[in-house]
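Shape matters. Shown next:

___
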Amino acid sequence: MAAVVGTPDLRRPAVFAVETLAVAVCYYAAGRLGLMRELVVEGAVFTPIWPPTGVAVACLLIFGLRSWVGIALGALLVIMSLTPLRPVVIGNLVGNTAAPVCAYLMLRGVGFRTDLARLRDGLALVFLGALTAMLLSSTIGVGLLVLTDRLAEHSFWPVWLAWWVGDAMGVLIVTPVLLVLHTVRRPLRLSRWKEASGLALTACALVPLATHSPVSLLFLVYPLLIWAALRFQLAGSMLCALFTSVMATIAATDEVGPFEGLTRVEVMIKLQAFNGTMALTALLLSAVITEQRNTRRSVEHACQELVEVLEHLTAGETPPGRPTKETEH
């Protein structure tokens, strides 16, 4: 009996170790992917989208606060792959870990649901998880660069803005996709697979054209996002947004298409404005559609129950689940 009772206790450290290692590996892998495309602002190199922040917030929402250990380990591995260990690294490590934890605590405080089935959940992820919490990492990171004389004081605000927007974009684009992948259970019907395949083929043809054409055609992606949100809600809209953001980032870093002939600051502003509005459109529109559909289903279910009760009353029968006078006594 003692061995049986003690088994779960023995498994907990092993499960925690495996979970921590998995979070760290995912964080590091996302960091290496993010570093594949970089922009330079005021002499500082930054990534337009920093996926590890999205991975970190998603892991915290899925596994809980204990994931901070894996996030810190993953952040340390990413930093060590870029620069040797120095005292300033500790500050960056604290900022990269504290920002997702702050996002998690604020989202938990407002009753955030990981299915993103309500508009309030989408708004909370945007304004608390992305825009507010990521102020912490950008302020600490850029502040340390200035304090260690690795960045001029007059360059603080442009670099701070680039850092903050990159972290925020990681939360807006990557976190919803991971939450969707975690909650999806039912496979699509055959008819839906046909439509999903059509949507995917359209996206593969339209998005590269819109992001690489010398004519400014970025607006063409919005009907695609609306189609995806209407028919496939969060899963469709956020996957389209992720693909579009990746293609736009590639075009911006290569300075082709609508980003050709612009200064580096103009490229950053145009890219981040496009990514931000696109992510907001996809996330909030799909949340509104999902919330309306859930409300309609609840109303239809209530109406169906009311019809059944009226039918039984008309027939002189006791509705199911209602006690009769005999059973009451």
Q: What stands out?
A: The chain has a mean pLDDT of 86. Residues 101 and 123 are 18 Å apart (CA to CA). The first helix runs from residue 2 to 34.
